[in-house]
Design goal:
87 residues, mainly alpha, 2 helices, rod-shaped
Length: 87
């Protein structure tokens, strides 16, 4: 019976030591400058992705306008020289 109690006490002490060690490592990671820089970098990448999506959307709208202009000019018989330069 004493062996069982000793095993339980050693297990609890080991668990407490592991939790303290995990807390120290977690604090070190959270307070490091690298972690803060990584957070800033992630935010910048997110902003760049949204900006790229907006630019692509605007480009698609612009391209569709040019396609509609070409179709309109073909239907109306516009053979001007400037019609070939529109996208």
């Amino acid at each position: 019976m004493e062996f069982l109690w000793a095993l339980i006490i050693v297990s609890l002490i080991s668990l407490i030591v592991v939790l303290i060690f995990a807390a120290i490592v977690r604090y070190a990671i959270d307070s490091s400058k690298t972690s803060r820089k990584l957070d800033v970098l992630i935010k910048e990448v997110h902003h760049l992705k949204t900006e790229i999506k907006q630019q692509q959307h605007l480009k698609q709208q612009d391209d569709s306008k040019h396609i509609m202009m070409r179709k309109y000019k073909k239907q109306n018989g516009d053979t001007s020289m400037w019609g070939c330069f529109t996208k």
